[in-house]
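Notes on consecutive records. When two proteins share a document, each keeps its own sequence and its own token line. Never mix them. Below: protein one.
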Amino acid sequence: MTESGNWRHGGHLRQLAITAGLNPEALLDFSANINPLGPPEWLRSRISGSISSLVHYPDPEGQALIDAACRRYSVNAEEVLIGNGSTELFYLLPQALEVRHALIPVPSYVDYATAAGIAGLTIHTLPLAAGNGFCLDFEALETALKELRDTPVMVPLGQPNNPTGRSFDARRLRHLARRFPKATFVVDEAFADFVENFDSLTVNRPANVVVMLSLTKIFAIPGLRLGVAVAAPSTVRKVKSLQPPWSVNTIAQRVGEAALLDTAYTQQTRAAVSTLREELRCHLEQVPFLTVFPGEANFLLVRCDRTSLDARTLAGRLLKRGLAIRVCDNFDGLDERFFRVAVRTEPENRKLVEALSQELFMAPLVKTRRHTPAIMFQGTSSNAGKSVLAAALCRIMLQDGYRVAPFKAQNMSLNSFVTRDGGEMGRAQVVQAQAARLDPDVRMNPILLKPNSDTGSQVVLCGKPIGNMKVMDYFRYKSEAFERVKESYDDLAADHDAIVLEGAGSPAEVNLKAHDIVNMKMALFAQAPVLLVGDIDRGGVFASFVGSMEVLSERERAQIAGFVVNRFRGQPDLLKDALDYTLQHTGRPILGVVPYLKDLGLPEEDSVGFKEGLFDDARPAEDAVDIAVLDLPHISNFTDLEPLRLEPDVRLRTVRRIQDLGHPDAVILPGSKNVIGDLTFLRAVGFDRSLENLAAESRCEIIGICGGYQILGRSISDPHGIESPGTDLVGLELLPVDTVLEEDKTLIRTEARHRISGIKLHGYEIHHGQSRADQLPPALIGSDGNGLGACRGDGLVWGSYLHGLFDADAFRRWFIDRLRQRKGLRPVGKVQTRYDLEPAFERLADTVRQSLDIPAIYRLMGLR
């Protein structure tokens, strides 16, 4: 890993990787001091927007860029010089200055000496002491300047220094510069943006100080080549006279203008790098035989003190592991023991520390997470079909012999489920667990958000509700919540061969990305390649693929492994041109075209399908019983009704307006996440009177499930402000039931029997309400013999807290047949449809296996 003065990183490193038999693209490069966060998100659009300008020559003066530099550094335009990287300016400066000597503290950036040598300067070095952490010795520097007897001299100084990462006291340098006016101090602030509380020499700059600034390190764009110098106007003019015309191209100028104004990204990077650097330093210091020198930039200088192992040999061993470090034996003042490592992301830093520990024959000193192969489905939008595809892949992998589990960091849904141990989780992950033939586990969905207003939700963490939060309150809580998410993921992943993750919404939602814990942040933590799913049935799917890639950061874009076109109606061959275009434009393949799958027989992911009329049935009501479901604004657990959709003699329809209610055979009030709000809604639109009339006619059966059961009652009280500011409301008064919303939430699995039919039922309860019924028979009898729910004497108005009561095939048929008899139809007398998801999972897996490139997905996961 040798570097010379004219060494250029990319080609040399690529050749080393090829020589070692490695894929250069897969190499973790700790030798390049580039921002670990990657380029800012605006970079791609800035470059794209500059393409039309390439038909013109660039502005030879770069005036717009200079103006931006003036605003950023509070200097005058005649003090600013732009160049093709700060390296170009370094090579021109010694030729422009009227100096004969260069005094260079060492170790330092090798091009300082190279540029001075090309200009014919006599080079004097000032060794920095390892025992002093390679800090700049101002007394020694002053002594060396005095020995030159006021001879004009150039003094290049890294601030912070490369490769040591140490900064000096800027105030002392200002004082020293004024005392030695014939010396020109060239202060290289290429890595200054990584230093917290940095004191730039562009401020209160003495006339004999030249400040070199690089925009490529902090913005991770070294290939763009852009540097800025701030100096005395006379120095700027001299250097400019030596500079070739059009030194800085149009794209570099445009990017530079934006970069100089983007202080937010600089602050974000500085904070992130500071944390990553300190963590890396602490871990490296635990490895015996390594001495880590304190640094303030985005890299650390390390010395290998093991007598039988020098840095070059160590670098060769690490390269075989796919890790590149920077050997520093060509830096004046350093020997074969020294190497430099860049600060990269947390998982990458862990790999480096583990590899160093192993190469030094040590047991791992850093607890390393076991990496479980993983893949993640994200979408170009909500309801793109991610959940169904995740369930399909879970079943496919199960068929192929893998112990696979689903995972979604955060789910926003009113459709929840209670696990065997009393934890609450989203139904989508329950279905995916069933596809993998696993018991639902709250680790699969550690955060569940249940909206109870337009601006707030109940937050369920690891299966237990922790309270209601407004949006901004939850944003502040997210960092803490994500720690629990990571713990849940690691714990779940350790028990399985593979994990299928699901994102939420879209990773391209720029208004939410800063607070993301469910899409790219989770993919990066899980080291999961991402398949971006688009719904072609909505239209614009290829624009969505390309547009999503455009707004992702480089780091996020690298995580995208391919695309999936979902819900396609037609011949896939017709898409060939579009697939080729997408590959050419994004560099990512389409890994599958999944057909539109109607009537899957699986529960819906969320209430989108319900709200869009998915439950509405157009079959004639004469040959079927007519069941109306009230579309409550805060409907929850609407999947209680899924089994009824499958029955051939049931017309299930969603009712939103009072004029659409008609004269159904049954009305179901489903669960609600805000019974106070939904009860208010029903009264406001007049449903209360309509239901009262239907109940009085004694022909229509009215059923309330959970929140719907509470609404049917006499009163609802919210003394603790669970869903309101402490409201008490009169219910629909169809049942003499009084409910109090308590702070503690009931989360239990329940077994019972229907009192009238005697048929066994099982399901779960999720509710804050505690209800008391006056002198009414119960609707159900629990396994302990206690009554559950309430039922009017004639059995036509009843309700309970039991979710899943219609899942029981025998009870569902009994219920429908009773409606048929009341309507004058002959009862069927035997089960017509079995609510069994297994055939649906198998059909789904067969179709998706034929549509997706499963071998390619397994290769992405590292399984084959």
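Protein two starts on the next line and is unrelated to protein one.
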Amino acid sequence: MPVMAGAATFRVKGVVVDSISGEPVPFAAIFLHGTDRGMIANEAGEFDVTASSRPAYIGVSSMGYRAAKLPAPERSTTDMVISLVPEGVRLDEVTIRPGKEKYSKKNNPAVELMNKIRERSALTDPRRRPDYSYNKYERITIGLNDFNPGDQTEGSGGGWMLRTFPFLTEYIDTNIISGVPILNLAVREKASTVYNRANPQSTKEVTAGLRQTGLDDMLDPESLRLFYEDVMREVDVYGNDITILQNRFVSPLSAIADDFYKFYLTDTVDIGGERCTVLTFVPHNDQSFGFTGRFYVVQGDSTMFIKRIILNVPRNINLNFIDRVYITQDYERAPDGSRLKQRDDMIVEASLVPGTQGMYARRGTVYSNHSFEPPTSPEIFDDMRREIIATDAASRDNHFWASQSPDNRDDYNRLNDMMARLRRVPVFYWTEKVIKVLVSGYLSTGKNSKWDFGPMNTTISGNSVEGVRLRAGGITTANLSKRFFTRGYVAYGTRDRKWKYSAEVEYSFRDKKYHSREFPVHSLRATHLYDIDMIGQHYLFTNPDNMFLSIKRSSDFLATYHRLSKLEYTLELENNFSVVAGLSSDRQVSTPWAPFVDGTGTAFGHYTTSGLTVTLRYAPGEKFYQSKTTRYPINMDAPVFTLRHFYAPGGVAGNLFTLNKTELNITKRFWFSAFGYLDAALNAGHIWSRAMYPDLLIPNANLSYTIQPQSFALMNPMEFINDTYGAIDLTYWANGAILNYIPGVRRLKLREAFSFRGVWGSLSDRNNPALDPTMFRFPEMARAIPMGNAPYMEAAVGLDNIFRILRVDYVWRLTYRNVTGRDRRGVRIALHFTF
């Protein structure tokens, strides 16, 4: 019976949760005793009930839980949390506040059950069979959560959008967990078959269909697909770690699970006609990277077969932007006892800022046609790709997708129609254009643009030599030619009053969808440029004239102008192995700050190095976001090996003498389960011959206030000049391993970051201008010092996740501290977006 708005004087709103796991208790009955008001909570355990007067007490009950009788609060409340104790938990072992309970893993039957499940997991693993395959249909949906069409106020979920686009009400869907309305903004579907071979072990996914539509069409579709699949990975609880949201969670079946989790036997229920024991688990620390959840284990089964799995993340977990995560998996048993996954559903509710419009993401996966027969085409295991995408995968018709979808939903065409109507509204049309420029960095010149201007973040920047640097450039697209591409720029410095330029022509041996840098690259590229070369300042993941690097801790004039011509052949394979072979001629032009003067005082106006470069790179399993200029790692899990050698023959093409230079770079991320991860980079190099100082091995110095990988924050450019070196760059991200345990501080969800960088090198006599008068002297402005027996080292302690996006480090110079004109310490910052 409804209560009139004017008569309602008492309101109780909140959520009913499991006292052990913290999970919502769906469909609990709430009754305000002393009134005639009550209700049934929704699937998320949420309730909102009003009465004309304050009740005597509040009664709450749910099947499988002890009924609760709570005193009514003195006044209305909208954030009440009611905890129910499961029937299967003895009250002398577990109270309503798990943090105060008397819990022991010793002689605990729940812990013994968990250990049996882990020990016998191989007995039900279908991958133990020589061959195993199945069909997989996956749908990823991104949308606005709690998008309320009935609330038109400024702060509501629908709000201004519904006032501007009233037709959106025709496209509203429902969140299957909470029951609130959602508005889908992006839909991606994939239909594939997965083949697994036990010996030699190999897994291949053959994708027959791919399609996507929605607001994210403005971004690179393949990169986004890889990103979504990486963030919302399939969950395998039988391993030690579970990777979702680009973090590692401790699995409830991990080798350390009995120390990380508390386990309880809480109920017995029927699942699919089989009687199951409910094994409930919750992490000891609700801010650590673990799950609350339940395993439904078939009773009387010697293999400890799990029929259903439910996982949630704790409400207080140290995750950014994430409000809730729900994961459900269902299994059926094959005749041989193998566990065959039928359904894997993940729902994520998120918000950028608490109290603002929430986001909704769902990955729904359905598995069918499980088979233990060998594939009809066994040669698929000879393919170097992990995922083999059919050439017509993106052009499948509606009939194909209707046959794949298990629920006959047509989200794709509905969203297509909605986007078409949105783009007919000018405010949306132009807003989408602006966002696309900001995200991609390029401005297209039409619907089927043949030339894109950019990158926009290099339009204006500055440095000590050029003053204000103005730059304009762009690239041709596949709308002009799918195989011939050009790109280039012109730049001008207001202080040096010099024009610079770059021109590039590339022929691709593969048809491209839009631009020449798309993976995999197989091309022949010719480049000619004239520009400034900041010696000893070469950044990895950004342009040197990025405007955000313009603010520096000191002036820097150690630069030359160089005229570089090069011809490169690039071959990238689908297994992430690549080879680049190139011919180049680099003429360095001296400047007053970086002159070319030998030991006799003879000055040279320029210095030329011409030779052959061969670069080998291997990154097995690498995933990256592909922009039009560079690639940004989606995750750093894959090891990356890069070996480069440069050879310049003496007396040829302007070379003063023969030059041989070899460099090696290795990077890898190491995970420590839920206790963070270590990003490691190792670099080494050696020059096997004589070399002038522009060709020597100079550590990367970072003069900006930003944190740059594999660059030294407190080193000056050309401070150390070597012909042999080894360097290490280590950053440990602790993910709150310490701060999560500090009362008060833990609420801020800060995370620790510890860094160490070091380089040791030496300069041989043959390349030391103090010993050989035919070599160019080092620039006086560099004040280069010889590296002795001690390496150069610096360390940093930082706070990450400030306001969810900012990292601040305090850096110390550990060695060579008493050198005049060098910073000993400093603060560095970086934007760091992570879950």
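For the record: The mean pLDDT is 88.
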